[in-house]
Specification:
single chain, 38% helix, globular
Length: 130
């Protein structure tokens, strides 16, 4: 790529891996949501206290994940709508090697691992553009 710039798509949906751009629609039982909440970071536990992810909570989590990734040394693009009810952004790096994948995964684990799938499973349409 030009000028040593590398790009990767990062969808902030919280599927199995942070770099996926979508995931299959699933529905979670209350027990599954409780288990997801209880295994999540403190940030996600607070959001999932009522086992529902509002659009504002989802947007805040996406923004927090984006900021975390940026703070870890990745370049990040604007948050954009993807697949109707999901948000994502492009990440990039310059130089010979990207920051460690573990860094990006840590941001996902902190902010999106459980929030993303629960948001997607609710099938709620985004009401405004990013």
């Amino acid at each position: 790529m030009e000028n040593g710039m590398k790009r990767t798509a990062a969808a902030a949906v919280g599927c199995a891996a942070f770099l996926l751009t979508g995931c299959a629609m699933v529905f979670f039982s209350e027990d599954e949501k409780l288990e997801m909440r209880d295994s999540a970071s403190e940030y996600q536990q607070a959001v999932l206290e009522d086992l529902v992810v509002t659009e504002a909570e989802y947007r805040d989590a996406v923004d927090a994940a984006r900021t975390c990734i940026q703070d870890a040394g990745w370049g990040v693009g604007p948050i954009e709508r993807q697949h109707g009810n999901q948000l994502g952004f492009q990440s990039s790096y310059s130089g010979d090697a990207p920051p460690a994948d573990e860094v990006m995964q840590a941001c996902n684990d902190e902010f999106m691992t459980q929030i993303g799938p629960i948001w997607v499973s609710q099938r709620t349409k985004l009401t405004s553009h990013p």
